[in-house]
Amino acid sequence: MGQRRRRYSISVVAEMFDIHPQTLRVYEREGLLRPARTEGNTRVYSQEDVERVELILRLTKELGVNLAGVEVILNMRDRMERMQRQMNELLRAMSEQFDAEMKHWESREEEGLVPVKRRGLLRRSAP
């Protein structure tokens, strides 16, 4: 049975980071956060949202990046993560294809090249 993902209310997230809930609303309005909503339209933040808030605050408070800069950084980060996932999938597919081709060659009859004195290589024919 799968474990339920932890969800946080806006007040809990604001308290975690010692910020005003309005700050989180601004981040949402600016498109930096997309918290889920309950049927009653209450914001609920996932662990990923909480980590994103932490990154936004680090960029703005510690590095002095404005919200427009944060948006650019987050978009680039998201694109890089998507590209990394695509690259991992491509490498996995190539590895599977390589393994399949190796099995194919290993299963073929033993036919190949054999050394013949100084004259080089001679193709060995199957019996």
Biggest sheet strand order reads 1-3-2
Mean pLDDT: 88
Q: CATH topology, what is it called?
A: Multidrug-efflux Transporter Regulator, Chain: A, Domain 2
**How many individual domains?**
1
Per CATH, the class reads Mainly Alpha
Contiguous helical run count: 4
Return the CATH architecture.
Orthogonal Bundle
Element string (H = helix, E = strand): EHHEEHHEE
Q: Determine the strand fraction and express it as a percent band.
A: 5-15%
Taking the alpha carbons of the first and last residues, their distance comes to 58 Å
C-alpha Rg (nearest Å): 28 Å
What features would you describe in this structure?
Residues 7-76 form the HTH merR-type domain. Keywords: Coiled coil, DNA-binding. It holds the Pfam family MerR_1. InterPro entries: DNA-bd_dom_put_sf (IPR009061), MerR-type_HTH_dom (IPR000551), MerR_fam (IPR047057). With 127 residues, the protein is of the alpha+beta class. It has one domain (7-108): Multidrug-efflux Transporter Regulator, Chain: A, Domain 2. 58% of the residues lie in helices and 13% in strands. It has helices at 10-17, 21-29, 47-62, 67-107, and strands at residues 7-9, 36-37, 43-46, 113-116, 120-123. The strands form two sheets. Strands 1-3-2 form a three-stranded antiparallel beta sheet. A hairpin with a 5-residue loop joins strand 2 (36-37) and strand 3. It is elongated, with a radius of gyration of 28 Å.
